[in-house]
Write the structure tokens for this entry.
Amino acid sequence: MLDVLVVGAGPAGLAAATALRARERSVIVVDREVEPGGVPRHCDHWGFGWLDLRRVLSGPRYARRHVELARDAGVELRTETTVLGWRAGTALALTSPAGPSTLSARAILLATGCRERPRSARLVAGDRPAGVFTTGSLQQLVHLEHQRPGTRAVVIGAEHVSFSAIQTLRDAGARVVAIVTPHGAHQTYAPFRWWTTRGRLPLLVGHDIVGIYGDRRVSSVTLRSRTGTVSELACDTVVFTGDWIPDHELARLGGLELDRGTRGPAVDSALRTSRPGVFAAGNVLHGAEMADVAALEGRAAAAAIDRFLDDGHWPARRLAISVHPPLSWIVPNQLAIDDAPAPPRERFVFRVATFLRDVHVAVAQGGTVLSETRFARLVPNRWYHLSSAFLARVDPVGGDLAVRTVGE
Amino acid sequence: MTFDVVVIGAGVVGAAIARALSEYRLAIAIVDAADDVGTGTSKASTAILHTGFDATPGTLESRLLRRGYPLLRAYARSVGIPVEDTGALLVAWTEEQLASLPALARKAADNGVTDLQAIAVPELYALEPELGPGALGALRIPGESIICPYTTPLAFATEAVVNGATLRLATEVRAVERGGSVHQLATTRGELAARFVVNAAGLGADVVDAMFGHRRFTVRPRRGELIVYDKLARSLVRHVLLPVPTKTTKGVLVTPTVFGNVLLGPTAEDIDDRDDRATTEAGIRSLLDKGHHILPRLLDEEITATYAGLRAATEHSDYQIHCDAEQRYACVGSIRSTGLSASMGIAEHVVELLALAGLALERRADRVAIEMPYIGQLAARPHEDAERIARVPDYGRIVCHCERVSLGELRDALVAPIPARSLDGLRRRTRCLQGRCQGFYCLGRIATLLAGGTERTVDEILGGEAR
């Protein structure tokens, strides 16, 4: 019987499969796209690979490198293969140009990634003209199909991916007329911001997009400031960036417990979901982390799966780890009380919803503070880490864990 | 050439009339100002196949609904239009609404719908466990169903076309020169000669009626905003959840769709602009408030679309269907939200009126049957069909992942008797780009495919310059 079936041939799935082959496990990776590699295939800029491959590559080259590593390790890659749903236990129903089929494995790894919320989910009013994109659809159009998206673009969002979209627009010859964020500042790193915008930054802070208008093609957007002033801006292209949601369809169809904060499957520190034999890694667990981080999570999942294949152990009881606003989510978000290894990279990853200065993030169990970490500055849409050293202080017969900010 | 009948308007009503006429030896043309079939009022309906239980008894609308409902059900089965028998629950939330339920049941009986059941609170929550708190009772209308609003007009028009009708899209009728035996229609794409003319112009029906010298009604569009929820919401609701109707509208409802989504809406707002299909912040907000009340957990689900439709309301509460024998002209106006359900009843009625007005009807023996691509969720789709994929592997190549649309289905839509010419046309025929990602994964590939299939550039397709 097949040891592991990996769903998704992005960085997390491929890195996990490669690591499992190194432990002499049989692995099949299925992916619904024509080409394996996941989202980095169309992120045509530098900055990929330093954390996991110890070299800096462009997105497409990084994707190709992971595919090569997996193939060299003997991983079977099946592209154009869509998972339709679950059979009993750890078997999945698939379809592909070879026809519908069922594939069983001793363990399953969900590495289905995440996507950006499109215009519809953000409830922007107005007409429905062409010219409205997400970073994903924009980059595929420009980098995979070699098309030009438009000439005057408004970018919604000012986080890392927003500047990736700006770079793509520039490559395609479009002018960015505004970058719109509800926050008081952009949320990326200054060098990346400078590189993609060459210092020219038409940033509109404290604004929300409220309407899109146009007959067949976008002709304008309306924006509202924090004081309620509504203004109109002429453009022919709108790109919605960020606002990530895990691609959790398969997790939900399988009845996996979801985390309220991330909307991805809830996992413990060994990346085990609530369904026995089913693990999850990469951006299906949370909004978009860097591809490198997803790949490292994939490797951590491989180690946990390898252990599971040896001992068949699945935790009976888990503690929940919940966050309180202004924290948005934390991953992992559960702890198995009888078996809680350190999480990937010995870190818990979290995000905040607002800008914060000089703040302490405390992990508590009941009345007991297990750890407190000071942050000089927390920025929304960026990832931050808590050391997992506090795991040694968790009381196995105590209650759930809560993470909150203290003071500011 | 001179057409025996020109039908103006390729919405669900015009297409149904053309289909009915195509059963006879007639030269038929269908013209529409838009670039596709069913793009006006038809595409933005709530997609419910109504029994007509709450129509006003004795009206033409009531009669044609009662006739159209079984006709459309049978037709849908024969050509592959997705239909699901969900039944509806008319839910009372106030004492006043509860008190009006018996009268509604009597009205239904007057409309010939006799199988309504009164549902008490415990049973109601057993039928709909996710229903919001505070419901006081309900009427169950077993016959109310849901139907595909896109396949229906396309099927009618396709059947007419494969049986010889001429379809002229992107062709707006600008003027009519009335003649003693032949009318000349001046369009944006040349002249059309017609012995008989049928006006099924929907939002433009009063304008066409004026071209024949009549002032029988004025269209005052009623805008309805709708929210579509992701397929993962489908398990939250089993029936069409109807509010108790008021004088102006049937109110806001929550209904599953045949695609497996959940629909919340519509609002009802009388507006002046016949092209204003913009959604509004206030409209969406009011729908969310009402949705939260009806089905609280719905609001946790992802929204895949918000849109507005325009219903062709007039000052009349009943359908305005007239046929003038002297003018050889039939007017089919004031067809509001029940047009989809009544379409085949309307068509049958109009054909009878045209016959009375002197149109010679000789039945054809050589009819070509059609089968529409199935895009519902109840039966197997092509990507689940082993035999079909074995013959054509492209049915196993999924391009739009959210809606699981295969390359084979997209290719079929580009070479259908009425092919897709735009992204919207492809959306309506296959469901592509209609899912939760709205093209995050597949827009580039689909736009390129459409460009290849229509010999246009991707720029033109994304510029919306559909011809």
